[in-house]
Amino acid sequence: MLRTSLIPTSHHRPHLLSFPLLHLRRKNTLKMARSALDEMTNSGAFDRTPSTFRNFISKDPASRFPAESGRYHLYISYACPWASRCLSYLKIKGLEKVISFTSVKPIWERTNENDEHMGWVFPASNDEEPGAEPDPLHSARSVRELYEIASTNYSGKYTVPVLWDKKLQTIVSNESAEIIRMFNTEFNDLAKNASLDLYPTSLQGKIDEVNEWVYSDLNNGVYKCGFARKQEPYEEATEKLYQALDKCEGILSKQRYMCGNSVTEADIRLFVTLIRFDEVYAVHFKCNKKLLREYPNVFNYTKDIFQIPGISSSVNMEHIKKHYYGSHPSINPFGIIPVGPNIDFSSPHDRQRFGS
Ligand SMILES: N[C@@H](CCC(=O)N[C@@H](CS)C(=O)NCC(=O)O)C(=O)O
Question: Is 142 annotated as contributing to ligand binding?
């Protein structure tokens, strides 16, 4: 069986060569993190480990991973914001008939009887957990098993998303930021919505700039708040989080989307965090200084993105709530799921005031 190299093979994208060992040294551990709950520095701050499989699908038929209909499968969890951004792309680009997908169950379980690892697992049948399905390709019990099929010596985290190549029986990529770029451009000969470009050349500089602070202070920022084990890193992360939300509110009071008056990658990346904010992060990750609903522009904007055709089907709030409240016993030992607030993101918004 062909194995995918664990060293990034992104020779045409050299800036992506961020070898994980540097991070490991900083964390004073020679073992890679097995789960997000292990990703702590000595100061009690949360520090996310980089992804490992970094191959690219290309529209060039001669490439190792050419864009072909029916060849690739996307494994996701509806709960996970990184996986959800890939699913959002699959839907809005009209790739449902080209790339199949499967969601795991929302609550982490033991992945192997021989050790304590907790992670993503598949249901045994279609009825076990609405939205989740058994693995259609290998009947794997866990996402961990997929990584073990792809590589015999993998020792990192068993994360979703996983973009799987059915032909070479391996993982193409487990980095959502790169999977969405592939979905945006490389399948355009097969996509129903090929003309939608969420990373147009003219806006790339702007999108990259927004992505940078949105990633560190919001997407990852909520995790830094929630997983902090000391007061100081929690407060530092909270301060940056609310500065970033205030900045979004300012931008969105002047224009419909984050990079102007057309929707871009920056909006999809921001949306996956905003949609989880009041339902989960405000309570579970202690992001309660202000709620999303208290930011009129950001709140209406979240509804606006939710109502883009295809997006609402990438949001499964039941999985989202079950996962966070049920999978982090160090934060929520009894796994109680708060009953509220059940926001209706399909209700009217005021964003048409900027034009459509
Ligand atoms: N860099 C990855 C991050 C993915 C990630 O952290 N996924 C989380 C779920 S939200 C996961 O699968 N965690 C499993 C674990 O921590 O063991 C990406 O953006 O694709």
Answer: no
- For strands 162-165 and 72-76, give the pairing: antiparallel
- Could you tell me if residue 131 is left (phi over 0), alpha (psi between -120 and 50 degrees) or otherwise beta? left
Identify which of 176, 153, 149 has the alpha carbon closest to the alpha carbon of residue 165: 149
Tell me how far apart the alpha carbons of residues 337 and 326 are, in angstroms, rounded to a whole number: 7
What band does 149 get if pLDDT is binned at 50, 70 and 90?
very high
Q: Is 259 known to be catalytic?
A: no
Whether the CB of 76 sits within 6 Å of ligand 1: no
Give the nearest ligand 1 atom to 118 CA: 17
Q: Which of 282, 260, 257 is nearest to 270 (CA)?
A: 257
Task: Kindly state the tokens that stand for 154.
Answer: 């993998």
Clarify whether 80 is annotated catalytic.
yes
Is the pLDDT confidence value at 347 over 50? yes
pLDDT digit string, tens, across residues 83-137: 999 999 999 999 999 999 999 999 999 999 999 999 999 999 999 999 999 999 9
Identify the residue whose C-alpha is closest to ligand 1 atom 6.
159
